[in-house]
Write a structure and sequence with these properties.
278 residues, alpha+beta, two-stranded antiparallel sheet, 13 strands, 31% helix, 21% strand, binds adenosine-5'-triphosphate, receptor protein-tyrosine kinase
């Protein structure tokens, strides 16, 4: 694996479990870095296939942005594992669902949406598609004020083709978050990530509700083709729902880019209880 910073297994101390994913486990840990500084970190390992984890490490090595979880390096000898920055605020999904949810003001919901758009704009500028953007894959750090996109297990670089045609992966596609052209023709692009961003923003303004909760998974793609969309969350301003709605245009090229989404979101100002567009 080129360019990845190699970390010695003896410099890592594994602590408690932070979470489990489809393939592996993420542990809280401490890393004694080469300057002899001890850094709190998260360690992802125990993958079913090393190839998947290698691909994720390669992707993360190429990314540096405040709204993307940072990779410190990887343990390559013994068992492969990925050492990354610790986001001690847990996932955005958990935060939205937590009993403290009333403390989350509309301004914070908008702030999380802006930060995710910012991270995704950067990702698209590097020609990566994430393919699994969802509130569960956004972590919080810095006193829960900073949102960071994580889980690049499905991410791919599309430098050679603007649209990436998905070949194979052991992980199932997250249907409720996935754009129709990606479900039908396995066609992934910035615009399929934009679709998922719309669903993520819907989760944020629904305080962590599951999209299409009352609907059987296999029925959702047909509903979407018929023009049915997720309903406006009760406390979501019309203008912000309109952004989500634009992300769910059946024609992928008619959806806004992340650059435009970021611009629109940064143009909103929360004033006297309503959103005003600048
Ligand atoms: P998936 O099934 O979504 O593909 P995965 O196996 O790729 O999951 P992750 O989603 O990356 O694993 O991580 C699983 C859980 O571990 C996350 O939901 C989160 O709670 C926790 N976690 C992952 N990375 C970190 C981190 N850097 N800091 C803190 N917690 C983390």
């Amino acid at each position: 694996m080129k360019c990845v910073y190699e970390i010695n297994a003896k410099d890592i101390t594994e602590l408690d479990c932070l979470g489990k994913g489809y393939f592996g486990v993420v542990l809280r840990g401490r890393w004694r870095s080469h300057q002899n500084v001890v850094i709190n970190c998260a360690i992802k390992s125990l993958y079913q296939t090393n190839e998947e984890l290698k691909a994720e490490i390669s992707t993360m090595t190429q990314l540096r942005h405040q709204n993307i979880v940072k990779l410190y390096g990887a343990v390559l000898k013994e068992s492969l594992s990925m050492v990354m920055e610790l986001c001690d605020g847990g996932s955005l999904k958990e935060r939205l669902l937590s009993k403290h949810k009333l403390k989350l003001l509309a301004t914070s919901l908008l702030e999380y949406s802006k930060q995710i758009a910012c991270g995704m704009k950067y990702l698209a500028s590097k020609n990566f598609v994430h393919r699994d953007l969802a509130a569960r894959n956004v972590l919080l750090s810095g006193d829960e004020k900073i949102a960071k996109i994580c889980d690049f297990g499905l991410a791919r670089n599309t430098s050679d083709n603007t649209d990436y045609y998905f070949k194979q992966s052991a992980a199932p596609l997250p249907t409720m978050w996935t754009a129709p052209e990606a479900i039908r023709w396995k066609k992934f692009s910035e615009f399929s990530d934009v679709w998922s961003f719309g669903v993520t923003m819907w989760e944020i303004f629904s305080y962590g509700q599951n999209p299409w909760e009352d609907c059987e998974c296999y029925k959702v793609p047909n509903l979407i083709i018929k023009g049915v969309r997720l309903k406006k969350p009760a406390f979501c301003p019309e203008d912000l729902y309109n952004i989500m709605y634009r992300c769910w245009n059946i024609e992928s090229r008619q959806r806004p880019t992340f650059e435009l989404i970021e611009k629109i979101l940064f143009g909103y100002h929360f004033k006297f209880g309503t959103y005003k567009q600048a």
